[in-house]
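Annual report, structural modelling task.

Input specification for the pyridoxal-5'-phosphate complex:
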Amino acid sequence: MTNHQFTTQIVHADRLGGAEHGAIHKPIHTSVQYGYEKVEDLIAVFQGTAKGGFNYARQGTPTTAALEAKITQMEGGQGTIAFATGMAGICAVFLTLLKAGDHVVASQFVFGNTNSVFGTLADLGIEVTMVDVTDAANVAAALRPHTRMVFVETIANPGTQIPDLEGIGALCQQHGLLYVVDNTVASPYLFRASSVGAGLVVNSLTKSIGGQGAALGGAVTDTGLFDWSGYPNIFAPYRKGDGKGWGLQQLRKKGLRDMGGTLSSHAAQQLALGAETLTLRMERTSATALALARYLEAHPAISRVLYPMLESHPQHAFARKHLKAGSWLLSFELRDAAQCLPVCNRLQLPIKATGLADSRTLIIPVAHTIFWEAGPDVRAAMGIADGMIRLSVGLEEVEDLLADFEQALAGA
Ligand SMILES: *Cc1c(COP(=O)(O)O)cnc(C)c1O
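The model returned the following structure:
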């Protein structure tokens, strides 16, 4: 199956683990306990000598395992752990792989809730330095003797900044640092983080991969590129077997079994179904977003449009080289910030809501909502103007969206 193309692999992934009763979709397994005829088989699952066995659903079920296998294929990795939400996956990465005294270099443009976790880490004695990751030199300058991890996002929200992903990958390789890439917005269809040397890839399945705004989920994929045998924070029980597997073993035991942010089988099945249409949705929404971006950039009421596939985008050259398309994420600024709320209200199709990658277009004024708690200083540092509006472009017909913007911007 591995020699097939991306979408072919995704739609046939469920059957690879063995079709039950000929079922084409992986069934929803609701059992919490898994029993065995012989106690030796149960022991083998506990001791990790039986590949793929289940014992208690907090560590996974056949349904979540099928989703994990699908994400692993999508990211081209060696294994994946599914979580209840993207944030559960991100917290598991930080809390199980870092300890007091460690240092992390992270993007200053990260998702707001990830930024909030950095404050929690500081109180636990794990320091995070946030830098402008669009230049790998800023990451290099922030490194310290105890730096363990570099954390970036492929396309930042709402500003659409793209890090120097290759340069940072080379730096991490050179210094033996764990390179963690949150690939939520781009998704593995638009960008494979393993191509720039990422050791772990995070996806909020709630967004691009699930795609319907109907189920929460998260995933952490090990690309197989990081050598865990040199990583000091692996507990003794997980230093067994090939060093390549140590990180995921620790993440599943400490992150899932102990912390308990487990994805339900019901949500896993819904997300797996959404994943089957990832390619179609990313192509459609990216094409619509680009058309809207070009329209908005030419409109006199708009001062700035942030979209990676516009020639005016600071990382456009990288985007053209590495991303299949620009994604559904598009932000723009009104020349007159006072028009921000009236324009949102005049738009008929986009739903005034937070959230990303739904089938429907969602719109939100950024400074008044998702960056309100951050305050004016942080907003200024992150380049978030009072007139900034974020769009998550949905599956509507592009003509309908363009006509709606035309009427809403008239007189703005
Ligand atoms: C939404 C989001 C998350 C968190 O995912 P949830 O599933 O909502 O917990 C993490 N990273 C990025 C980039 C996101 O957009």
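Residues 367 and 384 are 7 Å apart (CA to CA).
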